């Protein structure tokens, strides 16, 4: 299962993408809901944040306007950082680059959560939310690149659209006299999107409950979990490469 974080030369299977969705979409949903419980805002809800900007413009509230713009910019920068790291990793033949990005995200999340646990203050809430926006951009971009766009861990609007397209294609193919292989292909794609959606929703429910019970300890645990998964993936990959006598990654 840890191999889902490694992008190999051969094509990815739908099972690998579904496992990826179970991991990254669930953790994205958990973190998104925890942020709502802690700060009262979704750091990955870019559609809502962008729409709200228009309302702040009409209200002439420059403080809230700049805050929303900062969240959106942070999300974009996080996505950009993930892309640049992936390009660098591919050029240098680092097969574990996606796991390394997840490792960095987990460590950053754990450190931020530790800080909030001991020094939580309304005065620095906005800075923390912007940083969470960056992490969510990193998270979503990583899953999108790894799955070739089939798994967008935080972008549920896009995933629902993709699911609708897959369902429409599936229905059209089903009406043919000879659906052949297209039926299975569209069914697999639809199932992958549904797993992503359910994972994010389930993660959101768990995230709110966990934060209500454990507070920032739950966010620390999430950072530790992501770090542990990344370390295990890197370790397993390096072990397999060395056992096969290939050059180390």
From TrEMBL:
Coiled coil: none annotated. Keywords: Membrane, Transmembrane, Transmembrane helix. Pfam families: DUF1275. The chain crosses the membrane at residues 20-45, 65-85, 97-115, 155-173, 194-214, 220-239. The keyword Membrane applies. It comes from the Bacteria. This is DUF1275 family protein. The lineage of its organism: Bacteria, Pseudomonadati, Pseudomonadota, Gammaproteobacteria, Enterobacterales.
